[in-house]
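Hi V.,

Quick status before I head out on leave. The structure for the redesign project is tokenized and pasted below; the design run finished overnight.
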């Protein structure tokens, strides 16, 4: 404890936290400053200067004391207690003015009040410890019982004073209201001084006990150690889990102050207590050196809980008065005093036997054990999880994957425990600080949606998804945003659709604006307008606008996940802040969303389209003509990018290509997942019967499908391979189908695969929403088939809802004819025989550089969309090409599937978008910014049960008391 007088602690406990707090507050202020009234800006500046002054004074004193080899003085500790307590109190008092409630809370994801308490409490705690050490010099008699008595007397006196004030309130209320604030200042001062006195005497009592002056305790000295180091920590964990409130949480559930329900926390608590209570004087030098290492290794455990409960220490005295078990909040503080004193004793006892370097090496080596072990565990989970995400969503087909399913199971369970984006002050589902560290290191500050967790579970384990963690404040989202407003909800609809088209001779393309007017069919409601728009090949989005009041606001082209997150936050906030979002749903399908559409008010929005040929566009049941047929060259010749990497074929050019008829062959995808071992004999019978009754001219091919896909060579003994294959994992049909389609497009031939899935459990297979991005790989038909036990082929669609059966008969022996490009003899691609334009990659197997630009915007769009199609065939390039592809989209102002146009109302929203975008672009592209659940209306407050809610009621009571005092003070003023 005496080591806390070293001024170097000011660097770690005062200057460092102040710098972090200043950086955090500046980051939040830079986002919301444009929304703040002048009074709030003035408060930000005042508190900023105050924070800077506190930090500068502490830094100057630190340098002076270090240079003069002085210990931290009593006067500095007293001054720090007064100054920092005053700052915390003033900021808490003015918090609603610093950040008015009119500022949407999603713009400031950090609770600044909690951060002020968290980052400044180490300074207050250090100053308190300095005073304890200064007023308890070793070698003099001190009474632990006397200090315990004084500590108890403070809350008892406060309770009696509270009762007295309550009885005399009628006489004193006038003084409080009209006494120029004197009564208010007196009461606030008592509230501030009381907890400090309580903590001072309590810590001093524990410190005296740790000094070894225990004569007044007789033979019971070990008892208080056991109570402080083992009983109270274990009891605190149990109370946090709800043991005394009728609900004992498991390790996947929330706790009162956080999720500390893992058996590891209990095991470490018992081990830590045992090590601290071990009689070290009976050990030899080597044994005590080993004990020093073990005790220092668990100091991180003690310090962690001390940090967690540090912001709550000022409430501890009130908690002791209000709640019998409130003293458990003080257990980490008392444990830290004992732990640090014990380590100090060990270092002193080992001084005659070991050099200072050896003792410090053992101490520091022990201190890093838990942090390094935790970081290593988290890093391993990151590696396992990110490799699984790579395999599932951006695989390298040339790479052999063999993931550790057990490690992935553990990683997914931990992800679900940590993945929430917020930590509630009470009834938290996260582990404070640890969850923040985990989400940063493992999830790149993003999230892994439940849908992807379910996919990974089914792929690698062949099991049903993990159950979602119970939440004490569970909320069920409504089916639409306006459900909470009444049983009948007006639906926005398109009222007017018009176009403006101009032919740009330089680009040799049309530039068209599509203008929409939207209004609500029920003038008493507000809701979101949402529609899908299908574009032809060769049509790109070049701009987007939304009218906000009297002004026209053009969209910001941003990363799609970040833009969608910001849009969802605004809609969820429901303050009428006019966002509009335009993004891709699929390769040629747009999603347009506008919120809010209020009553009969007309919302006007528009999209700029760059297209090579005139076409008819359908939106909301209406059709408009874009471009004038015959007013520009028909474009019979193909249009290609420089070097011919991407080719655009207009409808006329496509009709000139020769028709060919390719021969299909069966490609059987045999389900060898877990639980399907008994079905192998039936698979063989079904396949053989199909080959007899519906043979094809080209021989079949086979792939074995579980978590991985094992293609069998042409002519291989598929029955033997099927019999010898181990049934494990899930049936990852997504990977098998994509692998087959990709191979067919990379190596175009006169034959093509007719995919047939052989399984008894298609419902358990992993399938995506569609395979539309690989549409060029199946020009004949978008159907694949499931071979049923009765021998029938059940048709399914590759283009939409693959898991749903189609009402279709058996496939023909030959598919429809297709167009061969550039000719039938040396075809590089095959195109469906339709009247639609098409994009062609002449050499899809060759590397394709990220687009750097083209002479015209339309040509740049051709490059971008061609590269996007190439990436679908080369998912392994998604990681390295993801960021450059998005940056190319930004430079060109051309919308791609990885970007979105977002219209925002004010600069604060744009700053929040920029911040979120930087976060997303720095993360793994297979992670997401949010869950896929509908946004929660701001008016639908989550219900908070009262089970274990006494702490919440305590805080609410304190907040109401401060608010009441503040109101009385204003009246007096």
């Amino acid at each position: 404890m005496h080591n806390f007088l070293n001024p170097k602690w000011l660097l770690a406990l005062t200057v460092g936290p102040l710098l972090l707090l200043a950086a955090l507050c500046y980051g939040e202020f830079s986002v919301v400053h444009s929304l703040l009234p002048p009074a709030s800006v003035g408060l930000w500046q005042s508190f900023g200067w105050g924070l800077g002054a506190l930090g500068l004074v502490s830094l100057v004193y630190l340098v002076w004391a270090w240079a003069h080899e002085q210990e931290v003085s009593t006067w500095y500790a007293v001054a720090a207690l007064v100054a920092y307590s005053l700052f915390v109190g003033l900021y808490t008092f003015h918090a609603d003015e610093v950040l008015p409630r009119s500022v949407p809370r999603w713009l400031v994801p950090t609770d600044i009040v909690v951060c002020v308490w968290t980052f400044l409490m180490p300074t207050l705690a250090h100053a308190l410890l300095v005073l304890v050490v200064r007023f308890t010099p070793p070698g003099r008699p001190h009474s632990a019982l006397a200090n315990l008595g004084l500590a108890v007397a403070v809350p008892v006196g406060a309770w009696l004073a509270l009762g007295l004030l309550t009885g005399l309130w009628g006489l004193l209320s006038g003084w409080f209201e009209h006494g120029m604030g004197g009564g208010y200042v007196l009461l606030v001062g008592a509230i501030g001084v009381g907890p400090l006195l309580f903590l001072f005497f309590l810590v001093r009592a524990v410190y005296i006990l740790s000094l070894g002056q225990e004569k007044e305790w007789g033979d019971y000295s070990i008892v208080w150690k056991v109570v402080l180091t083992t009983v109270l920590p274990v009891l605190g964990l149990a109370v946090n889990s709800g043991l005394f409130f009728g609900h004992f949480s498991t390790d996947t559930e929330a706790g009162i102050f956080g999720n500390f329900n893992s058996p590891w926390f209990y095991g470490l608590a018992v081990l830590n207590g045992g090590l601290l209570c071990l009689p070290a004087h009976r050990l030899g030098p080597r044994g005590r050196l080993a004990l020093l290492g073990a005790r220092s290794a668990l100091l991180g455990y003690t310090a962690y809980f001390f940090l967690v409960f540090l912001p709550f220490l000022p409430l501890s005295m009130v908690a002791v008065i209000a709640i019998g078990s409130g003293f458990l909040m003080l257990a980490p503080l008392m444990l830290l005093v004992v732990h640090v004193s014990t380590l100090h004793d060990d270092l002193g006892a080992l001084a005659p036997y070991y050099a200072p370097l050896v003792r410090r090496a053992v101490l520091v080596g022990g201190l890093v054990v838990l942090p390094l072990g935790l970081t290593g565990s988290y890093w391993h989970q990151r590696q396992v999880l990110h490799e699984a995400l790579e395999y599932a969503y951006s695989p390298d087909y040339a790479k052999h994957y063999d993931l550790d399913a057990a490690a992935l199971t553990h990683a997914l369970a931990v992800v679900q425990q940590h993945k929430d984006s917020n930590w509630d002050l009470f009834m938290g589902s996260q582990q404070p600080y640890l969850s923040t560290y985990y989400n940063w290191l493992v999830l790149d500050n993003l999230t892994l949606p439940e849908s992807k967790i379910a996919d990974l579970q089914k792929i690698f384990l062949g099991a049903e998804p993990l159950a979602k963690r119970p939440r004490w404040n569970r909320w069920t989202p409504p089916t639409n945003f306006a459900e909470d407003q009444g049983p009948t909800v007006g639906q926005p609809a398109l009222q007017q659709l018009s176009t403006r088209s101009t032919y740009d001779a330089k680009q040799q393309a049309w530039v068209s604006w599509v203008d929409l007017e939207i209004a609500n069919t029920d003038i008493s409601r507000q809701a979101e307008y949402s529609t899908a728009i299908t574009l032809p090949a060769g049509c790109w989005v070049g701009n987007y606008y939304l009218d906000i009041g009297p002004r026209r606001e053009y969209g910001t082209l941003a990363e799609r996940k970040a833009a969608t997150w910001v849009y969802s936050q605004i809609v969820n906030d429901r303050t009428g802040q006019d966002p509009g979002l335009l993004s891709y749903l699929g390769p040629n399908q747009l999603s347009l969303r506008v919120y809010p559409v209020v009553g009969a008010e007309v919302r006007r929005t528009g999209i700029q389209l760059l297209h090579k040929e005139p076409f008819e566009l359908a939106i909301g049941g209406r059709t408009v003509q874009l471009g004038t047929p015959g007013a520009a060259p028909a474009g019979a010749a193909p249009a290609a990018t420089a070097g011919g990497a991407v080719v655009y074929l207009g409808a006329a050019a496509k009709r000139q290509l020769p028709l060919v008829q390719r021969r299909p062959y069966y490609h059987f995808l045999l389900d060898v997942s877990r639980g399907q071992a008994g079905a192998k004999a039936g698979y063989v019978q079904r396949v053989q019967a199909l080959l007899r009754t519906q043979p094809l001219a080209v021989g079949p091919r086979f792939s074995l499908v579980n978590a991985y896909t094992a293609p069998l060579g042409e002519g291989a003994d598929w029955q033997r391979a099927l019999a010898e294959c181990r049934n494990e994992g899930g049936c990852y049909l997504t990977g098998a189908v994509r692998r087959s389609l990709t191979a067919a497009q990379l190596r175009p031939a006169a034959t093509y695969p007719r995919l047939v899935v052989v399984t008894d459990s298609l419902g358990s297979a992993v399938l995506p929403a569609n395979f539309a991005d690989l549409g060029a790989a199946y020009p004949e038909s978008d159907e694949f088939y499931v071979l049923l036990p009765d021998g029938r082929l059940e048709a399914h669609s590759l283009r939409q809802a693959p898991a749903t059966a189609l009402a279709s008969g058996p496939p023909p022996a030959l598919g429809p004819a297709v167009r061969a490009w550039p000719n039938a003899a040396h075809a590089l691609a095959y195109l469906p025989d339709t009247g639609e334009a098409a994009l062609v990659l002449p050499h899809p197997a060759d590397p394709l550089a990220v687009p750097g630009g083209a002479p015209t915007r339309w040509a740049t769009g051709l490059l971008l969309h061609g590269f996007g199609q190439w990436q679908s065939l080369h998912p392994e390039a998604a990681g390295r090409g993801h960021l450059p592809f998005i940056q190319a989209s930004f430079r060109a102002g051309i919308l791609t599937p990885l970007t979105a146009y977002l219209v925002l109302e004010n600069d604060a929203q744009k700053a929040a978008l920029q911040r979120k975008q930087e976060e997303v672009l720095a993360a793994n592209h297979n992670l997401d910014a949010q869950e896929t659940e509908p946004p929660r209306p701001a008016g639908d407050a989550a219900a908070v049960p009262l089970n274990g809610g006494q702490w919440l009621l305590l805080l609410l009571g304190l907040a109401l008391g401060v608010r009441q005092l503040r109101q009385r003070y204003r009246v007096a003023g």
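Above is the designed sequence. Residues 372-461 form one domain.

G. will cover questions while I'm gone.

Best,
W.
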